[in-house]
Design a protein that fits this description.
The structure holds two protein chains of two kinds. By secondary structure, chain A is mainly alpha-helical. Chain A folds into two domains: about 100 residues, Orthogonal Bundle (Rna Polymerase Sigma Factor, Chain: A); about 100 residues, Winged helix-like DNA-binding domain superfamily/Winged helix DNA-binding domain (Arc Repressor Mutant, subunit A). Chain A is built from nine helices and no strands. In chain A, helix 2 packs across helix 4, helix 3 packs across helix 4 and helix 8 crosses helix 9. In chain A, about 30% of the residues are buried. About 10% of the residues of chain A have low confidence. Chain B has seven helices and two strands; from the N terminus they run H-H-H-H-H-H-H-E-E. The N and C termini of chain B lie far apart (about 100 Å). The C terminus of chain B is likely disordered. The chains are: A mainly alpha, B mainly alpha. Bound molecules: zinc ion. Zinc ion (ZN) binds next to helix 3 of chain B.
Chain lengths: ~200, ~170
Amino acid sequence: MSNTINSKESDEERLVARLQRGSEEAFVLLVQQYQQRLYKTAYGITLEREESLDIVQEVFLKVHRYIGSFKKDSNLYTWLHRMTVNESLNWIRKMKRRFKWLHRPVESEDGNDFIYPELGSEDYAPEKLFQDKEMKTILFDQMKKLPEDARAIFMLREIDGLSYDEIADILKIKRGTVSSRIFYARKRLKENLAGYFDQTT
Amino acid sequence: MKNNSHKIDHALLNAWMDNELDSDEYAMFDDHLKECPACRKEVMSHGQISSLITKNIEQAAENTNFGPMNQRLFDALEKRNKPWWIRLARFMGTGKVLIPAGTLAAVVLVFFFSMQPAASISGPSALVSSVSGDYASVMIMETPNEQQTIIWIQETASIDNKDHKG
Ligand SMILES: [Zn+2]
């Protein structure tokens, strides 16, 4: 992340030029260089491992197909990232349509529907849970409960570190919407995970 | 230190966490944080969740085996890059279908030969109606991926013009 910008840019330009000439080695390099970052983005939005791999694969196939029309002055990673976000959101929309009947009902406003037995047990130790696999399950469960758009926006902020303006630009929504969705996602997560964190401070 | 009971400005707090404040607001909220345990606690618990999320997603990415996906990707690209006749040849080589090369050539010859009298033919449906003669066998196949149609005609007798035209 903290490489000097100049050398990184020229590296990228060189890579793009080679890709446009149809170099297979360049394509392999591209995949190796970016797959993990793109996977993180896809996984953050979908929370599904296999789907995220499919999404990343699809993005690379698109790169291969459209690299010829890629403008040299634009940023390669931005392009890849954007495609990954779009593919991920498309997948979420598709799933939502397909499994509408499985969709969870809207939670009660106070978030009281969140009860895990571990919470009340005597040897409940948040510090331990924090590193636990159990905690991961609980966390992912809660993230999946968030409305998809709020989660996607929140994850673009948390995982990719994008600013409100950058997120607004990618998703073509208002900056105000970005900030309110992030606000909402954070609030919900905190409320629903409160029991696991409060005692650690 | 003692203003424990104020109403937390969550919007401000969010903007602060997301680096979305201008420098004046920043300085102000930083100062407030030093004084206010309630806001500090709030920031802390958001921070815990945030780092837990980041940690888990990052771990997942690090533990992911990209090998099978890469394999699928490069297979798909190879398919995309190879010209159709190479793929066709491979398909033929799988043993599912065996066509002697000579028959293929004969197909092409018969095809063009039979086209000669009907000069104004323009589309495939018209082509079919113009073929006439006796054939031992006609086989129509489709390649599995591309749906290219191969018509294999094995000719036995010379063409006589029995009228098959509809
Ligand atoms: Zn405060």
